[in-house]
Queue: 3 jobs
Job 1
Amino acid sequence: METTESTRGRLIEAALTTSHPQTMADATLRLWEQLAPSLISIIGEGGFKPLYKRSLRLAAKEHPWMALDPTKSSAIQQRFTDLQACLRAQDATHARLGSLALFTIFLDVLASLIGEELTTYLLQSAWRKETSETPAKDFQK
């Protein structure tokens, strides 16, 4: 039986499927813009900001080029565009791995706070369009 954690991992993979760094950077920005409002409506911006900041810090341990300071800007949009610029500066492989690491860390921590099922549900809802080409049976438990 498949876990919601592996379902979540496949959702991230499906949403990030691309091979060009510019496309990866744009896809990552779009995914954060789709996910953030749903999460902020549940955990508030005061919950989202530290979770995003911690996730960046943890992702930068494996991908040092991701050492961004998300607190330098008060606008959530700017934090995501800073990440987008950082990803654009990388080759396709590094951009993809960094983006994948950031989403995975962020969603792992979120799942530890609100639970696997709610995290997966929010992810599916926010990224419905991004993962619509993946057969529904691939995301079921």
Job 2
Amino acid sequence: MIDKLPKFDNPPVIETILSAQFEHLDIFSNAHAGWFWKNYLDNQWIQVQEVPRIDDQFERFGNERGWILNRGLRIAHAPQSERTQIIRSDWQRMIQVQDSRFIYNWRKGASNYPSYDEILPEYQELLDKFEGFVINAGNKKLRFNQWEVSYVNHLPKGELWESPKDWDKILINLMAPAATVVGSNLDGFNGEWSLAIGDNKGRLYIAIKHARVGAADGDEIMVIQLTARGPVEDDRLGLINGFNLGREMIVRSFADMTSDDAHRFWKRRT
């Protein structure tokens, strides 16, 4: 079934992210991240930087579903390590580690977009190294609890659209509210939808926004980000199955929500 997914020779994707969340490690710090970098990765991984950690996220369903609440100031009861980004020499691959996540990013550069069938084995090989490191550092085996896949697409102004009122030529069934003021025109849009996957196997988030690249005076783009995540079952096998499910939902949803004209521009093959 997955082999029959839509494929594009010139897709608008600029970043693909695979993320595994696991129970917090008892022994982990920024120094441990440096240990992993220097002793478990080869010399093509040339640079590290520290960024704020990502909070744990869990998809809940039914009465357990979480809602966005105004919780005010969050107080941490113990120091927590930050997230360490480890960047490859070509700047097109990045590993991110913290005490509850292992993340792998592909970022668009000069080379062609790699297929998921290339990225997933790379992720698995690097995760094997991280799991070996975790044990050697004195922790127990990783216990995965959440998988996440994300694709980020940039559609530059001037290719398929000139103003946001053209977006309905790209996105099927995107309807702007009726104008309430005579002479008004749609000049921007930001929105997010969430869809349950199957029988509560996960959730797909689709976010669309009007943005600029880099600085406030950068080129205008439409950003379409699709993120799927859900609970892990059966540990490592469940993690990979989750990645496969998330990728399939993202690819099919992106193809279903975009127009034939856009598909021709992106050179759809199947």
Job 3
Amino acid sequence: MYIINLHQIFILMKKQLILSSAFLFLFSLIAKAQFEIEETLPTGPTTALQFDEPEHHFGTARAGEKVQHIYRFTNIGNEPLQLTNAKGSCGCTVSNWPKDPIKPGGTGAIVVEFDTKGKSGPQVKQVTIMANTDPMHTILYIKGEVLADEMDMVNDEPVPQPKAKQYWPVKTPAYSASVFPNPTSGKFTLNVLEANGQNASLEVYNNQGQVVSKADVANWEGSLDLNAADFADGNYWLSVKMGDTERFSLPFVVVR
């Protein structure tokens, strides 16, 4: 005959309670993981998203400057593309991204801004785009180097260095480019006097990063009249590529 005292019974019950708690905890982790996996899966028809430049190198920037870049993309699938979110990593924000569906073959743009304040040295930041694609997440990168000190030393004395003039988003045009009149209510003119004889590619983006107009011009002749009569009031960006130079952008405003 075995005699089990109350102390032994308490120990057995404690062991069973620990095992039960551990099982419930493990079950909750598995259930949570399954839920998170299901949550990231796209619902409904999916399409395909292709960026012209998923990785952008901005070169160098002084600490405290804000670097911007336009990431252009195309819906290369057979269903309308719907972006649901766009998030940047530390110091990196998405100021504009299309909210309306983009039809197959359609294009759009995402405007990313990187604030270099408090940063120094090589930088690698990423932006996560969520859309009805498979997989749902697309990663963009912005890379470069931040110069921590805005002052150079001459004879052991700090000498402030002027910041370079920047055009939106980051590229400084190789030409003296201007938009006139700005603001405009209808027809306006793009002047790029030094680009005579070169081929030009023009795109107009609205504040949501959508292409609202585009044109290709052969043998540029100093200036070009553009029509904004059908544009709604608001801020726009004229993206320009002249010959083999890098694309740059100029902001303009439409008012009535």
